[in-house]
Amino acid sequence: MRAPLRFGMPLLAALVAAGPLLLAQQVPVRTELDRIVAIVNGDLILASDLDQEQRMMAFRPLREGTEELDRTRMLDRLIDRRLILQQEKLQPEDDVSDASVRQELTALRQEIPACKVYHCETEAGWQRFVADQGLTLAQLTALWRQRMQVLQFVDQHFRLGIHITEDETQAYYTQTLVPAYRRQGMTPPRLSAVTPQINELLLQQRVSALLDDWLKSLRAQGTVRVMPDAGGTP
């Protein structure tokens, strides 16, 4: 924060007597300008969007891996999301309802570890936690709705057509899960007990591979321009 200007009493009295115009000239207001970090088929991604994405990490208790995403990787994710949302507009699906967004955010309040300190089960505690992440409730709701739109699009266009066979489930159980348990000196569970979890994992892997190929195709067909030093610290 910029330190306040301090004047001796005679100078302060002179400035006040000179009127507000002179005060404005002596103490200029600094304006922070946003900057473009990427252009996706004509849509702008700003540095403030990157900052917002970084703040949203606090609302994702189950992250992909343990490492923190740097700004370059976050920008890649923003570009992918923008590409998906552009396609979603061309192939409109059912809107995400307000009730669905509220339901997910209510569940989220119980999943974020830091929320226990804030007592997010109360409205006041939840508002304080959101504010401390640099967001308003309205901003969080809008961003979460966007996230749900992306997931809905991916599910409807990729997930529904995938079928995991019994052979694939058996192969993962035998070649991956059982050896992992034995390396830890543990008895592996029966295949029947973990079949739903294995199928869901294999389904997610298949969706991720299809989505990655599709996004590469969209980038190649469209125009994605990343500005120099776009992922750098603002």
Helix-strand topology string: HHEEHHHHHHHHE
Tell me the CATH superfamily. Answer: Porin chaperone SurA, peptide-binding domain
The separation of the N and C termini measures 16 Å
Strand content: 5-15%
CATH class: Mainly Alpha
Adjacency order of strands in the biggest sheet = 2-1-3
Low-confidence stretches: 1-25
Share of helix among residues? Answer: 55-70%
Biggest sheet architecture:
3 strands, antiparallel
Which structural class fits the helix and strand makeup? mainly alpha
Shape: globular
Question: In CATH terms, what is the fold-level topology?
Answer: Triger factor/SurA peptide-binding fold
Note the total helix count. 10
Mean pLDDT level: 84
The CATH architecture can be named as Orthogonal Bundle
Characterize this entry briefly:
The chain is mainly alpha-helical and 234 residues long.
Name the descriptors.
mainly alpha, Triger factor/SurA peptide-binding fold, three-stranded antiparallel beta sheet, single chain, 234 residues
Written overview of the protein:
The chain is mainly α. It has ten helices and three strands. It has a three-stranded antiparallel beta sheet with strand order 2-1-3. The protein starts with 8 loop residues before the first helix and ends in an 8-residue tail after the last strand.
Secondary-structure blueprint of this entry?
Blueprint: H1 9-18, H2 20-26, E1 36-40, E2 43-46, H3 47-56, H4 71-90, H5 98-111, H6 115-118, H7 123-132, H8 137-159, H9 166-183, H10 191-221, E3 224-226
Helix pairs in contact: 3-4, 4-8, 5-8, 8-10, 9-10
